[in-house]
Amino acid sequence: MRALRGHNAAVVLDLLRSAGDDGVSRLELADRAGLTPQAVSKIVARLRDEGLVADAGRRASTGGKPAAVLRLVPDAGYAVGLHLDRDALVVVLVDLAGGVAAERRAALDFGAGADAVVDVAAREVGALVAAAPGGVLGVGAALPGPLDHGTGVLHRVTGFPSWDGYPLRDALAARLDLPVVVDKDTNAAALGLALAGVAESFAYLHLGTGLGAGLVLGGGLHRGARTGAGEFGHQVVQLDGPPCACGDRGCLEALCLAAVARGDLDEAARVLGTGAGNLVSLLDIDLVLLGGRVVGGAVEVFVRGVGAVVAARARREGARVAAGVAVAPGGERVVAEGAAQLVLAPVFGRAALAGAPQTRPFPKLGGSAP
After folding, report:
1. Which of 3, 116, 143, 163 has the smallest C-beta neighbourhood within 10 Å, fewest atoms?
2. Strands across the sheet with 324-327, in order?
């Protein structure tokens, strides 16, 4: 019963969040949540006591008593989203409604070793937490894989073998004294996009210092049996091709980054489009979203180039409609904001989508983090 009460409260919170500033009445909450009005009243009373719900006025009367409208209090709690790239970090403080309240950026060097990276990350996250006007529920950290999402332990980060086996989740949690979730950068971005409702099934392709994919299939984030799904950049597309930092040859990432390095962005888009076409054919998805700093610097080139390759392949395969190709909303913060959703999604009953294990339970909403 306790778990059921927690789930029902999360469902009500999610409905309140979806309603935005316009708010929603108790009767509407009961109808949409499939609960009795009495149950909703009890849940709302508890959420109000915890500072999570406030009045949003009354609706105009349609003949009866004007209905009282409720809304979520966004600044009643926060989550931190941390994007660790190979050479820089972005950290954001996100409120319960998903709004970014503060942001920090810093240079980073994965080659300096895991402990040095954790020092920089803890400093930047700590500065945001100290300035947060409300309680912080936890930290979502996103970085290049491969890694074990369940334990928060890194595998051999491409190009940085010394990171293999590093317990990043526990190291950050010990430094920050907050619950921490760790996931791949592409998964975090895909989660944030899925929660925003971009599509039921799609691939998010991230081209920056590396190349990876986040997959949402049938409304759920797909990590695979060993949390290794989405190592998109290391599919071999040219046998005996140029060496890749992963140790193989002819990887999509190596070819794409080489084209970027020599300034041939049209070729980089063509190579990326080839990989995207493989993915579309394999998974039968209908949307490909592009992100990462390289894409952000030449959006039109990549959307046009990847889209042309995907469309040509669809014509050859006899598809009636080609998969759509577009730039992912969110810009440079798409990974950091998605990382914050690793913490927030379970609060709103979206744990099945987020699948977010952490070092200890997130603190109770309405109170400060331990």
Report:
1. 3
2. 220-222, 211-217, 202-207, 287-291, 324-327
Cβ pair 325, 306 in contact under 8 A: yes
Q: Model confidence at 1, in pLDDT bands (50, 70, 90)?
A: very low
Phi, psi (rounded to 5 degrees) for 289: -110, 135
289 close to 205: Cβ distance less than 8 angstroms = yes
Distance of alpha carbon 348 from alpha carbon 12, whole angstroms: 8
**Closest by Cα among 106, 140, 59 to 337:** 140
Helix (H, G, I), strand (E, B) or coil at 48: helix
User: 258 near 176, Cβ under 8 Å?
Assistant: no
The neighbour count for residue 88, using CB atoms within 10 Å, is: 17
pLDDT in tens, 262-318: 999 999 999 999 999 999 999 999 899 999 999 999 999 999 999 999 999 999 988
What burial class does residue 75 get, using C-beta atoms within 10 Å of its C-beta: 0-12 exposed, 13-18 middle, 19+ buried? Answer: middle
Instruction: List Cβ neighbours of 284 (8 Å cut-off, separation of 6 or more).
Output: none
Q: How many whole angstroms separate alpha carbon 175 and alpha carbon 67?
A: 48
Structure tokens at 146: 């491969």
Question: In angstroms, rounded to a whole number, what is the distance separating the alpha carbons of residues 198 and 327?
Answer: 12
Q: Are 179 and 137 in contact (CB under 8 A)?
A: yes
- What is the pTM (predicted TM-score) of this model? 0.90
Q: What is the DSSP string of 203-225?
A: EEEEESSSEEEEEEETTEEE--T
Contact 124, 99 (CB under 8 A): no
Contact 116, 109 (CB under 8 A): yes
User: How many other β-carbons are positioned within 10 Å of the β-carbon of residue 216?
Assistant: 25
Q: What is the pLDDT of residues 311-327, one digit of tens each?
A: 999 999 888 888 899 99
